[in-house]
Amino acid sequence: MLGILARTMVKACMVKPSSLVKPVSVTRVTGRYLAHQEGLPKLPVPPLQQTCEHYLAALTPIVDPEELDHTCQLLEEFQKSGGVGERLQKGLEQRAKKSENWLSDWWLQTAYLDYRMPVVVHSSPGVVLPRMEFSDRQGQMSETLPVEYLGGKPLCMNQYYQVLSSCRIPGTKRDSVVNYARDKRPPTHITVVHNFQFFVLDVYNSDGTPLTVDQIYIQLEKIWNSSLQTNKEPIGILTSHHRNSWGKAYNNLIKDKTNKESVRAIQKSIFTVCLDAPMPRASDDMYRTRAGVQMLHGGGSRWNSGNRWFDKTLQFIIGEDGTCGLIYEHAPAEGPPIVSLIDHVVEYMKSTDMVRTPMVPLRMPQKLRFNITPEIKKDIEEAKQNMNIMVHDLDVKVNVFSHFGKDFPKSQKMSPDAFIQVALQLAYYRIYKRCCPTYESASLRMFRLGRTDTIRSASIDSANFVKAMDDPAKHNTEKVALLAKAIKAHRAYTDMAIRGQAIDRHLLGLKLQAIEDLAALPEIFMDTSYAVALHFNLSTSQVPAKTDCVMCFGPVVPDGYGVCYNPMDTHINFAVSAFNSCQDTNAARLAQALEDALLDLKTLLEQTPKAKL
To answer: What does pTM read for this prediction?
Structure first.
């Protein structure tokens, strides 16, 4: 295990955001980065009337007709010439002129830093990587950015710069994020945690060259051997707590000088590596599910949940039993930059080149000390209890859909993502006999500092199709036509979203502009329809990777699901989550319904060969 980890770390530590191929000087990276960023367009503010029209269309399949009529009246009033909507729109357009991105700061605050639920399960995604072939410590530790484009247009690379040497800092009311990657002297160490004990491991020599695989292996072995005791307080579990509680505990923790220095060392590190104890054995068909929960929360206080620093942006997790993956704190970046880094590192691990160097004596990695007062001990016990409640509440099912992958929808000239999303709409409708608000993340990285907007997968066209699919009175040719229309509508909304023309961030901007103007909140934002529209029973994300991995995250509402998928050529990796505390949701049931829906769509298309798509 340590050998694989050593090789992984050599590559991960060498990754530069602007050059995933070879190290380059900070000056050159910064110069190229700034020139690239300045060439990107600013995020547009969509026309007000366009957003209102699309908002009504998005509400149609998910709210009652009477409620829709009421919302229609509110929107007419909102759009009146010289009215409140026009005034807020002008304010937003002024903000867009003055700032690099009118949305990015607001989004970081409202979506992440103001959010007070624990980052574990509720915010931070986990990634399950292919299982490594080792089952002991030896294995656990001896194997092992160019500009991106979408549709020919360059993408914002800013998020790559936020991933390394960064950390979330808890506050009692609002959090913040620190990033040390662009300091004059960027950090040259990572933190390694084993048996709840943290160590600083320098991964660069004094001349700026990274340590070799052999050197890192030796250092990891030193850490392993000096942290065999497990009777230590799991200080890291504090980071899993409710943010307000952790904010108070944090202020108390860093009053002590030793504790403060140890916490700063973790926050400044390039990333954290978690050497996990083995989890309970699972059957082969349950292995991925068990690995998914290990990445998301560590399994609880009895297992590896204390073997983390959940505020750290990037944590690689390597289990003694071959389980490996990572968890990342969501505030600084989305999934695609993380997956790009994973793809690069995993590809590097396949290479057989091993740089052997003369062994020179290396300093013992520094163990980070914590002084645990009775008050801190009490905070740890409370965090343990809350973590165990979360662990028992989270229901996860990770599936490999092996019948086909993105190759089949492509053969039908259909978007694989739209195909999966329509199947998901069908699966949900079959269980609940209704359509629900559905969130799919769309990247706004065509724009400077762009993050995400929402693709609303529940559309008028998807609703028409799912209602017709199991109707024996409908002919297959009609069903196929409705399917094609639903897929086309999803594709059109996706294109609209990535061009900065979707409705959700625009509506949020208008709402926040009203709050900033200290004006009364317009009625459309206090309307039942708005609350329904934002109650995403399905929170979904396609995170495609070259690596055969899958990302998983928790639901965003108590009666909802989190669904993430990675479409490979001949199979699809799915992760479905729900909460056990909700009697109406069940991750395995939705996963099975999704599998059935995908197979039924394929059968429908194959049985209707003459349909003109």
So the answer is: 0.86
